[in-house]
Model the fold of this input.
Amino acid sequence: RLRVEAEIIRDEALSVSGLLKHKVGGRSVNPPQPEGIASLGYANSVKWPTSTGDDRYRRGLYTFFQRTVPYPMLMTFDSPDSNLSCTRRERSNTPLQALTIWNDPVFFECSQSLGPRIVSETQGKNSSLEQRIQHAFELCLTREPAESEVEIIKQLYQEQTRLLKSDPKLVSELTSKQTIPAGSTPQEVAAWIIIGRVLLNLDEFVTRS
Done:
Protein backbone atom coordinates (compact mmCIF):
# COMPACT_ATOMS: atom_id res chain seq x y z
CA ARG A 1 0.00 0.00 0.00
CA LEU A 2 2.91 2.34 0.60
CA ARG A 3 3.69 2.48 -3.10
CA VAL A 4 0.19 2.96 -4.45
CA GLU A 5 0.21 6.76 -4.67
CA ALA A 6 3.54 6.79 -6.51
CA GLU A 7 2.39 4.12 -8.96
CA ILE A 8 -1.13 5.43 -9.60
CA ILE A 9 0.17 8.14 -11.96
CA ARG A 10 1.73 5.48 -14.17
CA ASP A 11 -1.40 3.34 -13.98
CA GLU A 12 -3.56 6.31 -15.01
CA ALA A 13 -1.33 6.95 -18.02
CA LEU A 14 -1.54 3.30 -19.01
CA SER A 15 -5.31 3.38 -18.58
CA VAL A 16 -6.05 6.45 -20.71
CA SER A 17 -3.73 5.14 -23.42
CA GLY A 18 -5.54 1.79 -23.48
CA LEU A 19 -2.39 -0.17 -22.59
CA LEU A 20 -3.20 -1.14 -18.98
CA LYS A 21 -3.61 -4.87 -18.38
CA HIS A 22 -6.05 -5.81 -15.64
CA LYS A 23 -4.80 -9.31 -14.86
CA VAL A 24 -4.95 -10.02 -11.12
CA GLY A 25 -2.20 -11.90 -9.27
CA GLY A 26 0.96 -13.54 -10.49
CA ARG A 27 4.66 -12.83 -10.34
CA SER A 28 6.25 -9.39 -10.10
CA VAL A 29 7.04 -7.68 -13.40
CA ASN A 30 9.88 -5.50 -14.68
CA PRO A 31 8.44 -2.60 -16.69
CA PRO A 32 10.75 -0.51 -18.90
CA GLN A 33 13.01 1.90 -17.07
CA PRO A 34 15.65 4.39 -18.25
CA GLU A 35 18.73 2.80 -19.77
CA GLY A 36 21.67 2.32 -17.43
CA ILE A 37 19.75 2.33 -14.12
CA ALA A 38 20.36 -1.35 -13.33
CA SER A 39 24.11 -0.92 -13.89
CA LEU A 40 24.23 1.38 -10.85
CA GLY A 41 23.93 -1.66 -8.58
CA TYR A 42 26.97 -2.96 -6.72
CA ALA A 43 29.46 -4.78 -8.98
CA ASN A 44 26.88 -4.86 -11.78
CA SER A 45 24.94 -7.44 -9.77
CA VAL A 46 21.47 -6.02 -10.49
CA LYS A 47 19.65 -7.51 -13.46
CA TRP A 48 16.47 -6.00 -14.86
CA PRO A 49 15.08 -8.14 -17.68
CA THR A 50 12.37 -5.89 -19.10
CA SER A 51 9.02 -7.66 -19.19
CA THR A 52 7.34 -8.27 -22.53
CA GLY A 53 3.78 -8.81 -23.69
CA ASP A 54 1.00 -8.04 -21.20
CA ASP A 55 3.46 -8.01 -18.29
CA ARG A 56 5.02 -4.84 -19.72
CA TYR A 57 1.83 -2.91 -18.94
CA ARG A 58 0.56 -4.38 -15.69
CA ARG A 59 -0.51 -2.29 -12.72
CA GLY A 60 2.29 -0.70 -10.74
CA LEU A 61 1.36 -2.83 -7.74
CA TYR A 62 3.17 -5.72 -9.46
CA THR A 63 6.41 -3.84 -10.21
CA PHE A 64 9.39 -5.68 -8.74
CA PHE A 65 11.01 -3.67 -5.94
CA GLN A 66 14.79 -3.86 -6.23
CA ARG A 67 16.04 -2.65 -2.84
CA THR A 68 19.54 -1.60 -3.94
CA VAL A 69 18.40 0.11 -7.16
CA PRO A 70 14.69 0.95 -6.78
CA TYR A 71 12.49 1.54 -9.80
CA PRO A 72 13.35 5.22 -10.46
CA MET A 73 9.80 6.47 -10.93
CA LEU A 74 8.93 5.33 -7.41
CA MET A 75 11.70 7.43 -5.95
CA THR A 76 10.92 10.46 -8.11
CA PHE A 77 7.31 10.48 -6.96
CA ASP A 78 8.04 10.10 -3.24
CA SER A 79 7.51 6.41 -2.66
CA PRO A 80 8.42 5.62 0.98
CA ASP A 81 11.24 3.27 1.95
CA SER A 82 9.66 -0.18 1.84
CA ASN A 83 11.94 -1.40 4.66
CA LEU A 84 10.45 0.93 7.28
CA SER A 85 7.04 1.84 8.61
CA CYS A 86 5.57 4.99 7.09
CA THR A 87 3.41 7.21 9.31
CA ARG A 88 3.34 10.20 6.98
CA ARG A 89 4.08 10.41 3.28
CA GLU A 90 6.47 13.01 1.94
CA ARG A 91 5.12 15.04 -0.98
CA SER A 92 7.20 17.06 -3.39
CA ASN A 93 6.83 18.93 -6.67
CA THR A 94 10.11 18.89 -8.57
CA PRO A 95 11.35 19.32 -12.16
CA LEU A 96 12.44 15.66 -12.12
CA GLN A 97 8.81 14.61 -11.97
CA ALA A 98 7.99 16.53 -15.14
CA LEU A 99 11.12 15.17 -16.84
CA THR A 100 10.10 11.64 -15.88
CA ILE A 101 6.69 11.99 -17.51
CA TRP A 102 8.26 13.55 -20.61
CA ASN A 103 11.04 11.00 -21.05
CA ASP A 104 10.37 7.77 -19.14
CA PRO A 105 9.90 4.88 -21.63
CA VAL A 106 6.54 3.89 -20.15
CA PHE A 107 5.05 7.39 -20.43
CA PHE A 108 6.39 7.79 -23.95
CA GLU A 109 4.76 4.51 -25.00
CA CYS A 110 1.53 5.68 -23.35
CA SER A 111 1.48 8.84 -25.45
CA GLN A 112 2.28 6.76 -28.55
CA SER A 113 -0.88 4.74 -27.92
CA LEU A 114 -2.99 7.66 -26.72
CA GLY A 115 -2.56 9.58 -29.99
CA PRO A 116 -3.98 6.83 -32.23
CA ARG A 117 -6.74 6.18 -29.69
CA ILE A 118 -7.91 9.80 -29.82
CA VAL A 119 -7.95 9.70 -33.62
CA SER A 120 -9.62 6.30 -34.02
CA GLU A 121 -12.36 6.94 -31.45
CA THR A 122 -13.34 10.23 -33.13
CA GLN A 123 -12.96 9.12 -36.72
CA GLY A 124 -16.02 9.82 -38.83
CA LYS A 125 -17.49 12.00 -41.54
CA ASN A 126 -18.44 14.75 -39.12
CA SER A 127 -15.40 14.59 -36.86
CA SER A 128 -13.68 17.89 -36.23
CA LEU A 129 -10.57 19.14 -34.50
CA GLU A 130 -12.70 20.51 -31.66
CA GLN A 131 -14.38 17.11 -31.15
CA ARG A 132 -11.01 15.40 -30.91
CA ILE A 133 -9.77 17.96 -28.40
CA GLN A 134 -12.89 17.40 -26.31
CA HIS A 135 -12.44 13.63 -26.43
CA ALA A 136 -8.76 13.95 -25.44
CA PHE A 137 -9.71 16.04 -22.40
CA GLU A 138 -12.44 13.60 -21.40
CA LEU A 139 -10.00 10.69 -21.58
CA CYS A 140 -7.17 12.38 -19.67
CA LEU A 141 -8.93 14.80 -17.32
CA THR A 142 -12.52 13.45 -17.24
CA ARG A 143 -13.93 16.87 -18.13
CA GLU A 144 -14.67 19.07 -21.11
CA PRO A 145 -12.07 21.68 -22.09
CA ALA A 146 -12.70 25.38 -21.61
CA GLU A 147 -12.86 27.52 -24.74
CA SER A 148 -9.43 28.97 -23.97
CA GLU A 149 -8.00 25.45 -23.66
CA VAL A 150 -9.51 24.44 -27.00
CA GLU A 151 -7.79 27.39 -28.64
CA ILE A 152 -4.45 26.52 -27.05
CA ILE A 153 -4.61 22.90 -28.23
CA LYS A 154 -5.75 23.98 -31.71
CA GLN A 155 -2.74 26.26 -31.94
CA LEU A 156 -0.46 23.47 -30.71
CA TYR A 157 -1.93 21.07 -33.27
CA GLN A 158 -1.41 23.53 -36.12
CA GLU A 159 2.15 24.34 -35.06
CA GLN A 160 3.13 20.70 -34.69
CA THR A 161 1.51 19.79 -38.02
CA ARG A 162 3.68 22.37 -39.77
CA LEU A 163 6.81 21.07 -38.06
CA LEU A 164 5.99 17.42 -38.78
CA LYS A 165 5.50 18.15 -42.49
CA SER A 166 9.18 19.09 -42.71
CA ASP A 167 10.44 16.16 -40.62
CA PRO A 168 9.27 12.75 -41.95
CA LYS A 169 11.89 11.00 -39.79
CA LEU A 170 10.32 12.36 -36.61
CA VAL A 171 6.88 11.26 -37.80
CA SER A 172 8.25 7.75 -38.34
CA GLU A 173 9.85 7.68 -34.88
CA LEU A 174 6.70 8.86 -33.14
CA THR A 175 4.36 6.45 -34.92
CA SER A 176 6.66 3.41 -34.91
CA LYS A 177 4.83 0.17 -34.06
CA GLN A 178 1.49 2.02 -34.10
CA THR A 179 -1.44 1.13 -36.33
CA ILE A 180 -2.61 4.20 -38.23
CA PRO A 181 -6.43 4.42 -38.04
CA ALA A 182 -8.24 4.12 -41.37
CA GLY A 183 -8.73 7.49 -43.00
CA SER A 184 -5.91 9.10 -41.03
CA THR A 185 -2.22 9.66 -41.76
CA PRO A 186 1.02 9.09 -39.80
CA GLN A 187 1.52 12.86 -39.66
CA GLU A 188 -1.92 13.43 -38.08
CA VAL A 189 -1.38 10.65 -35.55
CA ALA A 190 2.06 12.03 -34.70
CA ALA A 191 0.53 15.42 -33.93
CA TRP A 192 -1.94 13.80 -31.53
CA ILE A 193 0.85 11.80 -29.89
CA ILE A 194 2.55 15.12 -29.12
CA ILE A 195 -0.72 16.55 -27.75
CA GLY A 196 -1.14 13.40 -25.67
CA ARG A 197 2.30 13.97 -24.14
CA VAL A 198 1.25 17.49 -23.17
CA LEU A 199 -2.00 16.36 -21.55
CA LEU A 200 -0.28 13.57 -19.59
CA ASN A 201 2.15 16.12 -18.17
CA LEU A 202 -0.47 18.61 -16.96
CA ASP A 203 -0.55 19.22 -13.22
CA GLU A 204 -4.25 18.37 -13.31
CA PHE A 205 -3.42 14.90 -14.61
CA VAL A 206 -0.56 14.27 -12.18
CA THR A 207 -2.04 15.81 -9.01
CA ARG A 208 -5.16 14.68 -7.20
CA SER A 209 -6.41 17.00 -4.45
The mean pLDDT is 88. The chain has nine helices and no strands. The CA atoms of residues 126 and 132 lie 11 Å apart. The two ends are 19 Å apart (CA to CA).
